[in-house]
Design a protein that fits this description.
alpha+beta, Fructose-1,6-Bisphosphatase, Chain A, domain 1, seven-stranded mixed β-sheet, five-stranded mixed β-sheet, 11 helices, 34% helix, globular
């Protein structure tokens, strides 16, 4: 299969990073800071980014990475830096072979800062570039909802590999859209799913483990004959997508079930495995540009599970422009057969505004 080594590296790197995020998740203090755009970032975000980029740079030294975070705050804040360094050192896979694929532990604090800062690529249409969101849905992470560790490889601007680690999704109860929030999520028992896809080669899911990869199974979107029976997913945060427009679209489609609100790319993962049918993300702001790391992995996973993902006007998401999807507005993800019907209504609702 194409990109077999890249896929394996990405799966193990994401799995190792979830050891760290889970540890932070269970801790009382998550070391939360506020970024310049007022969005939250935690010690988990920094630690996971450092671990994943170190692994990429070990295996593919000349690849670039577009990562959400950087080391600026750590360079000026010693307490924060040593707190994260401790976590990073503790996050090792139980399996020596798997750990060796990732290049083993990061050597020292400098190595951690260098890895974090290697996520500053400007992106673009040429060459091999990884898109990394070390914790997607930080607000979900903080409130005890869903979050995802997201990694994708783009080659010449096209997403060819996507991996999503979803520590709070149920392993077995595949049909259930898990939106529970709070205490029961901190019990990792029975939770934690690793999703992956390679362009042209299908999508799989497997339980997250602490060592070598578990065996994977193919995932497919749910066949949906009657659109009125659809379940649609949307963000928890009303500031991230328009709940009003999404409700109007669902109404026009004759959908009667209430929306399922979930943080992070766990929405893409959930519809890809047949828990839910549609993911609607209609823009709130005229100026917000979606980030490539918030979509790259999810889009290839849904595509390989039998879905179509476009923006709200039906354009393919263009990952080749830079760090943001500046050529697109919103996201509509649906099974291939019904995507045109959904898109028609999305455009009607947007055009009537
Ligand atoms: N105004 C906005 N519109 C759409 N997405 C946003 C907006 N502001 C932040 N985001 C991003 O939405 C993602 C989470 O989506 P969801 O709500 O579906 O879980 C986050 O990565 C978050 O970025 P950030 O990392 O800056 O918080
Ligand atoms: Mg994100
Ligand atoms: Mg993030
Ligand atoms: Mg963020």
């Amino acid at each position: 299969m194409a990109y077999e080594n890249e896929l394996h590296l990405a799966q193990l790197a994401v799995q190792r990073a979830t050891l760290l995020t889970r540890r932070v998740y269970a801790a009382k203090s998550k070391g939360t800071l506020s970024k310049s755009d007022a969005s939250p970032v935690t010690i988990g975000d920094f630690g996971a980014q450092a671990l994943i980029i170190a692994a990429i740079k070990h295996a593919f030294p000349s690849d670039e990475v577009v990562g959400e975070e950087d080391a600026d705050d750590l360079r000026t804040n010693e307490a924060l830096r040593s707190q994260i360094w401790e976590l990073v050192q503790e996050a090792t896979l139980d399996d020596a072979e798997a750990e060796a694929v990732l290049g083993g532990p990061i050597k020292d604090v400098d190595g951690m800062l260098t890895a974090l800062d290697a996520g500053r690529s400007a992106g673009g249409a040429k060459g091999r570039i990884w898109a990394l969101d070390p914790i997607d849905g930080t607000k979900g992470f903080l409130r005890g909802g869903q979050y995802a560790v997201c990694l994708a490889l783009m080659v010449d601007g096209e997403v060819v590999v996507g991996v999503l680690g979803c520590p709070n999704l149920p392993v077995d109860d595949k049909e259930r859209l898990d939106t529970s929030i709070g205490a029961d999520q901190t019990d990792a028992e029975g939770k934690g799913v690793l999703f992956s896809a390679v362009l042209g080669h299908g999508a799989t899911s497997r339980p997250l483990t602490r060592g070598a990869l578990a065996e994977g199974t193919t995932i497919k979107m749910k066949p949906l004959e009657d659109i009125t029976q659809a379940t649609f997913c949307e963000s928890v945060e009303a500031g991230h997508s328009s709940h009003g427009d999404q409700a109007a679209i669902a109404g026009k489609l004759g959908i009667t079930k209430e929306s399922v609100r979930m943080d992070s790319q766990a929405k893409y993962a959930s519809i890809a495995r047949g828990a839910g049918d549609l993911y609607l993300r209609l823009p709130i702001s005229k100026t917000y540009q979606e980030k490539i790391w918030d979509h790259a992995a999810g889009v290839v996973i849904v595509g390989e599970a039998g879905g179509t993902v476009t923006d709200a006007w039906g354009k393919k998401l263009d990952f080749s422009i830079g760090r943001t999807l500046s050529g697109n507005k919103g996201v509509v993800a649906a099974p291939k057969a019904i995507h045109p019907e959904v898109l028609k209504v999305v455009i009607e609702v947007l055009s009537s505004k």
